[in-house]
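hi!! sorry for the late reply, been swamped w classes. u asked for the two structures so here they r. pasted raw, havent cleaned anything up. first the sequence of the first protein and right below it the tokens
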Amino acid sequence: MDDMRFASNVSRSGRAKIKLLLATPRGFCAGVDRAIQTVELALEKYGAPVFVRHEIVHNKYVIDCLKAKGAIFVEEIDEIVETDAPVIFSAHGVPKAVLENARLRNLFYIDATCPLVTKVHREAQIHYEKGRHILMIGHFGHPEVMGTVGQLPKGAITLIETIKDAEVFENRNNNELAYITQTTLSVQDTAAILAKLEERFGLIIGPNKSNICYATMNRQKAVSNIAKICDVILAVGAPNSSNSKRLVEVALLSGVSRATLVQRALDIPWGYLQDGMTVGITAGASAPEIIVQEIVDAIKTRFETTVKFITTANENVAFNLPYVLREDR
């Protein structure tokens, strides 16, 4: 069926034509790069196996590559038998109870939590120590949210997922309120939820600087920019990647008629692509550039293609590796 559609779009020159716009920045952020390097350097330094709690980042290609090098992924450290091998905690962060369990078992662990997530943990701790009740804007079940909520005693943080949650939340104890957010949210959705909380509760204390990370904001701005002039947006990323899914949402809100998530070239929805279209490509912060190139190459096999890079920001952020893996320690 797809081949028939393609054939019907062949131009007089012999091939259907498509213009590709590559949103820049896209793909790996500094936190993801640091987390992947942490696993790779631990394997080099200590040898296989290296255990990793949860996916180090949400991307199957990356996980499969690390597995091939000797990484073993587990959901909980209780799955790990007694070992001297390193145990790495993912970029999303972990609850304090996980760290305590690792200490009690005398596990050699390396924390690859993104420093921007750690910043949110610290803010939550400060609000709690000042007697404030904390509202966390985020998605239930996401490992970053679970890790952040798990920094404090049960009940200290209330999760707000939607505007409806903001409408029905009751400040029963009349506490001073503070808010924090998941780092990978839609900027627009978060602003709408926060506006509702401010409407209901007036002064609510937030971070000095948005908890939504620079990479999430930059990628959303970049895809919003090209969505206005594209017929289709392909966002490279995994279905369990929050920031990648937000790129699809932002593209649709920005005016493109079709936007979809693709993990690999095999997922390209060929029926969406027609002669004369402008197709935008972006990638979530956990998606490697090699997959973007794979998708571009696959499109080139079917269409006469021009490629243009549309840059909205330049990134030069880098985070230090965990101390035990630094060459200068």
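now the second protein. again sequence first, tokens right under
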Amino acid sequence: MNQLIAYMGVALAVALAGIGSAIGIGAAARASTGVMSVDPKKFGKLLLLSALPGTQGIYGFVIAFLLLGRISGMDLENGGNAWHTFTAGLPIALSGLLSGIHQGKVCAAGAMMTAKKPDDSAKALILAVFVEFYAILGFLISFLMLP
């Protein structure tokens, strides 16, 4: 039972952050492809906006990988930090899920702005980075909570 609890923390970290990234990238990429269907030369400006929501999934993967490394050295049969491991995965799981989705929405709006004002694409990227900050906070808290 303790192994299940510990591995659920790992699974949630990678799965929820990954889901947030997939949804966010999907929203941003849909908007970007619409813009590129009219003006393919904007690909370079739209690439980063489309890819940015993917960082949450990377953060979740890194925490899951670190947690797996910790689990292999634990004596989970005798209690050994199973709940600690589970809860360490939660901050990046939840912040990655929500920030990935919302960052994708901001990036999609940025793609629309880039369609009309290509010179303002950096402004759209800066606004999307504001959302990224909360994924970074979730990553840091998960990292600091590692057993």
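hope this helps!! also noticed smth abt the second:
Residues 2-144 form a domain with the Four Helix Bundle (Hemerythrin (Met), subunit A) fold (CATH 1.20.120.610).
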